[in-house]
Design a protein that fits this description.
about 325 residues, alpha/beta, Rossmann fold, eight-stranded mixed sheet, two-stranded antiparallel sheet, 11 helices, about 20% strand, DNA_methylase_A-5, transferase, Adenine-specific DNA methyltransferase, methyltransferase, DNA binding
Length: about 325
């Protein structure tokens, strides 16, 4: 499909979003979630005569036109992610809820692939406890699916019901089976039997001190860091030997609460990798993030010989990035699970 056709598809998707936003009186993100649900189910949902018959007729014409494009899964995902970015911009979405770029999902999937390959896993239960728009999880699954090596069963949690709806509808359009739940991920989880977690963690203070009280990573005084609590809660909910791949601030081990996080890590998990993400992905040094790979104690898990550390090269630098993939393979050879 040509770039012009891709633009036409996006324009039609945007037209449907605008109609639904006006008719339902919702945010752009909520309108996009509704659009994707309609596309997936092949019909326009109407509740209490909203949207009205005129709007329904216009939407049906648009959805019929979208079907005629015959996009590949990759092209479809590109169109949806551009729509998410536009919706976030129009809604003035807060930084913690912005979509995770595809490049980070690709890198996370490469790390997961090498670990799972060494462990010879065929079926993997994955969770994203802070799923947001769903792009990190969808990209992660799509990349692993392309290898034809694993059966991925995925779950998603988030405390924003609009984003949970978007994740669910996004995954349905992509023909992925993701169970999405609206909940505070620091609170108790109902899902069990989880092998792996990936998360682009929101950064900041967790406001409910009572919920934080049971965690070893809680602050001694005042509010605790939400990303610390989420790491602990997620690792607690994994199977023995389970893997957590977390996108965190690069300075995570240099803050006023870093000591509590480090003490918990020593007692409960193996720190297997700390990798700064490519600097080109971030607008400033302050915004720089890293990938931390943790493994829960238990099973056959053990500390790898050398913690993988360094800066991941830009994905647009093929030679350097291939070198990084070679490093990943050598590191993952020591993984047990």
């Amino acid at each position: 499909m040509s770039e012009k056709d891709m633009q036409s598809y996006f324009d039609k998707l945007n037209e449907a979003n605008s109609l639904l936003k006006k008719s339902l009186r919702v945010s752009n993100i909520e309108a996009l979630a509704e659009t994707l649900t309609n596309i997936s189910d092949g019909k326009v949902y109407v509740e209490n005569d909203v949207p009205d018959k005129d709007t329904v007729a216009k939407l049906e014409v648009i959805y019929k036109g979208l079907k005629d494009f015959n996009l590949t899964p990759l092209q479809l995902k590109q169109a949806i992610t551009v729509s998410i970015i536009k919706s976030e911009k129009d809604d003035k979405t807060e930084v913690n809820k912005l979509m995770t770029p595809d490049a980070i999902g690709l890198i996370a999937s490469l790390i997961a692939y090498e670990i799972l390959n060494v462990q010879d896993k065929k079926s993997v239960n994955v969770v994203d406890p802070t799923v947001g728009s769903g792009n990190l999880l969808v990209e992660f699954i799509e990349q692993l699916n392309m290898t034809d090596k694993f059966k991925i069963n995925a779950a998603a949690l988030d405390n924003d019901d609009a984003l949970v709806s978007l994740t669910k509808s996004f995954s349905e359009v992509m023909n992925l089976n993701i169970d999405a739940y609206h909940q505070d991920s620091v609170a108790e989880w109902d899902i069990t039997d989880i092998d792996m977690a990936i998360a682009d963690l929101p950064v900041g203070y967790y406001p409910v001190d009572e919920n934080a009280a049971k965690f070893k990573t809680k602050a001694d005084k005042g509010h605790s860091y939400a990303h610390h609590l989420l790491i602990e809660q997620t690792m607690n909910n994994l199977n023995d030997g389970g893997i957590g791949i977390f996108i965190v601030p690069s300075q995570i081990f240099q803050t006023d609460q870093a000591k509590k996080l480090s003490e918990w890590m020593v007692s409960s998990v193996y720190l297997q990798a700390v990798l700064d993400l490519p600097t080109t992905l971030f607008a400033s040094k302050e915004a720089q993030k890293a990938i931390v790979v943790l493994q829960k104690h238990g099973g056959k898990a053990e500390q790898v010989g050398n913690v993988l550390m360094g800066t991941i090269p830009d994905t647009n630098n093929p030679k350097a990035f291939e070198g990084f993939k070679d490093q990943l393979q050598d590191w993952a050879k020591n993984f047990k699970g």
